[in-house]
Every structure is written in C-alpha cells, then in structure tokens.
Amino acid sequence: MSMRPVGLPEIPEQTVVVARAAFPKGSLPIRVRDRLAEVFVDEPFTEAFGVRGAPGLSPGALSLVTVLQFAEGLTDRQAAAMAVRAIDWKYALRTELTDTGFDASVLCRFRARLADNGLERVVFDRLLEHCKEAGLVAAGGKQRTDSTHVISAVRDLNRLELAGESVRAALEALAVAAPAWPAGHINVTEFAERYGPRTDGWRMPPSQAKRDRLARVFGQDALALCRAAWADDTPAWIREIEAVGLLRQVLVQTYIVRIDARGRQVIKKRDADDGVPPGQLRLTSPYDSDARWAAKGDDLFWMGYKIHLTETCTTLPDADADADPDAGTEVMPNLITDVHTTDATVPDVKATAPIQRKLAEHGLKPGEHYLDSGYPSANLITKAMEQGIRMVTPVLLDHSAQAKAAEGFDKNAFTINWKTRQVRCPAGRTSSHWNPVKQHGKDAIVITFSVLTCRDCPLQKQCTTSRTRRRMLTLRPEELHENLARARAEQKTGTWKNKYALRAGVEGTINQALDVTGIRRARYRGLPKVRLQHAFSATALNVIRLDAHWTTGPLDRPRTSRLERLSYQLSA
Fold it and tell me: CA torsion, points 341, 342, 347, 351, in degrees to nearest 10?
C-alpha cells in the first residue's frame, strides 16, 4: 500500500446539500471538518507509508475516523459502518453519498503502522499546535496533572497459569512459523493433549499437591523446549520468535534448576527464599510483554498500565470577586496538553520530569503546575523553579520519628548554619560531624552530635531514642532543603489550600475520559498501541471540548435543578 498526498479534496456537492439539510444546526463531525480540516492531512504520515504499490486510503481520513470512533465509543466495525451510513461522517470524510466505505480491518492495520513508526501522537500534537495558533492554549498559564490505572487487554494469570500458558503460546507460534521443527524435538501428540486447550484456572487440579506436580510438569516442558531452541544446531530465527523468547523469560522468573542429593537435575518453582524478579521486569502474560502487576494502597491491585493526563485549568470569570460581569471575558476551554502512558509499575514521581519536558518542547510550559503528593520531590521542585515552573503540590512531610509522633524535636527545631557546616540543637549545643554522602544515588548530608554532647542533655528523651543516645539528622543540600522547608510551611496556610483546590478539577477530566473513551481498559496489547489508544482518546476529548466551546461554551451548565429554577424565578 502506498500514499500519494494530494491535499484536501473538496466535499462533493451532493454530500454538502444532504448533510446541511439533515443537520441544519450542524453536528460534531461537520464542525470538525469545517474548523479542523488542516489537522487531518496526509503529509505527517508519509514516513509510515511507501511510495510504491496500489494507492491506499488516506491516512488523514483514517485518523479522523479514529478520532470520531473514540469520541463516540465505537468498535472498529461500528466505525466502519458509520463511514458508510452516517451523512455527517461522509461530510467529514469528504466522500460521495454512494461511497461504500472500507473494511473494518483497515483501522487495525492503520494503527499498527502508526505504532511501528512512532507516530502515535501525531494527530494529538497537530491538534494541540492548531489550538496554540488559535490562542486557546499558551505557555505560562495554569495546568494540572493526574493519573489513573489502566487494565490490560489480556486476562489475568496466576504464576501456575502463566507457566502453562507460556509453553502453549510458544508451541502455537512454532506450529505456524516452523511446523516441522517441533516434531524433531518434542512429543507433539503428548504436548497437543496437554497444551491444546488454553491453561485455565477452572481446569486446575483441586489439591495443592497435584498443582505442585503440574507446576513441575510445566517447568520441565518449558526447560526442554528452551534447551532445544537454544541448541547449537537450531536455526537462529527460531529463538527470535517472540513467544519463544518470552517463554525463556517466564522460565527464569518462575523456576529454578538445582542438583538434588543424588546428583540429579531437578526443576522447582521459585519461592520467596529463591528470589523473584522485581515488578518492573516480571512478565505477567505471554501475549502482552509490556503489561505489569502493580498495587496502589491496600485496595487497588491491577495488571496493565498507567496514564497521566495534563490539562489547562481555566477559572470562571465570576470566581474573581473583583471581576466585572459586563467585561465580556471569553472563557477558554480546558484542553488536554499532554498524555503520558507508562507500565503500571512506574511511580508518579518518575513521570513529572518527562511531562514537564514534553510541555516545554511544545511551547506550553506552565507557569503553575498543580499536582498531587505523588509527583513532587525536592529535586523536581528545584529544577522546575529553575525552568520557570512553580509546582503547586503538597510535598511529603518530615518522616522522622519525632515528626510522626508530633512530639519531641523534628528537623525544624534545629538551626542550620550552612557556612560553618554546623547545626545547633534546641538545647543550644552544636553538632560534631558534617558528612556529605550519597543515599540512593542522591546527595545528602548526615549530621551527627557527639555522644558526650548528648549524654547529659536534659532534653535527650525528647530528642532521640537511639541506643547510642545521640541525635543524627539527614539533610538534603542547602537549596533543596530550603525549598522543601518553604513548601512544607506554605502548604499549611489557608491561602495555599484555597489555591490548591483548583487541582481537583482534573478528576472530572479523568472521569470524562473513562465515560467517553473508556481509557480504564486497554483496547490493544503492548505499550506502543496502548499509547496510541490514549493519544487518540485525548484528541477525542479535546475535539469534544472544542465543539462545546464553539457551540454552548466549555464551562456552561445547561442543566439546572428545579430548586435552582425556582430560585431564579423568585429573585426575578
């Protein structure tokens, strides 16, 4: 399939007449075509399509179909059907009324091309650039970010099911790619009986002893298959089959090979004493190598990914007590400026810098960035300030035993002299050692008071409970320490709390994304395609919000309760 960009074609005259008659007030697809036509052009997709072969469908039109598909929560088949029977979709796609559309599989192949060529965000970025040129978004304003979990498109597997299903997936792949190879290395009949149906917990033996025996069988089969695949006489391309490579990873993370007392080689399932890979490296399914298990608090445990949405946050004009109601100030829509997708194990604090860096690259660096307590650190707050970004976020409080118990002397009770490298305690005594160190790869300073200084201190019980009976403090470098102390003091004020209330609005965006585009569940497998799904979901939300801005106003409240209407009547 090839692509030959020819520019935006005109809408057929008959399509225009019928669409205008059917939708005299317009519709979302019609307004998108009239106002955002330059966003959905072919040129940005040239690197993903060749120049030889039969000409394919316009990637610009397919990207518009995908955006409308997410805006209306449609499947591929439903979206392909809408392109045939919906008049306003034909208007947006610039097709004749008699056009028969395309097969639903075209959308799947289109997404695969985008993901393979790193073009997941191209439509989102183009729409953002259009909004920037239109003055709807700009650098220096207020933006807010929040995250939510995303459940993978594959089923959950426990460790036993994962071991069996990984062998089955590798055998299925070999049966397609190299049907003659398994016959020379395994008993195909026996393996077909064992791994023909999918490995399902409902079919597992009821007793633990039988489950342990089945786990050893899965491990022995996986080990035999891997040894055959990595033998010297095996073609190298056998090992390059993805399912075979994943089987090897599952074998290593699930089993351990040992020599028993008789000198025999045995394979056993790993337990806590044998060690298991960390969560960010541990495979959870042979069908999605990027999905990971993660937990948040005591109640949320999921397998999949995590998405971070960043949006502008415009306040209503009447929120300002001094605002002039007759000034006619236009309220800008709250638009999503960045969408950042990771696997489920990446903590929020690791996403802060990439999000701010991407906003800066697009010329949308915020003046104030509102985040929850999972995103900041002393280093991030300081670096953001150097870049002109003020992070409005609750920082983690002092974790010392004295601070947690709210009694005794925490770090704020000590006076630090950075020039002389000494610390004075509440009793007026001075520290004896100032040791710059590295902790978890970060600079820190360990302050130690002498045993002789603390031994006879009347405030010792309020200061330390250590066995050495002397106080120790761990500080960050001066600039980080001062910024952290200032942020902790500021977040206790009423002014800061009232200001920080603006962050709560991003919860509504998360909810809208869940309701409209269904971002809670991944539609596709693999991180690149999940990123594509989220980029198009964010684009669809922006299109919906722009449409509200063009028609009713982005922050209008068209629905009122009976009590509110009664109040308006009485006040009139």
Answer: -50
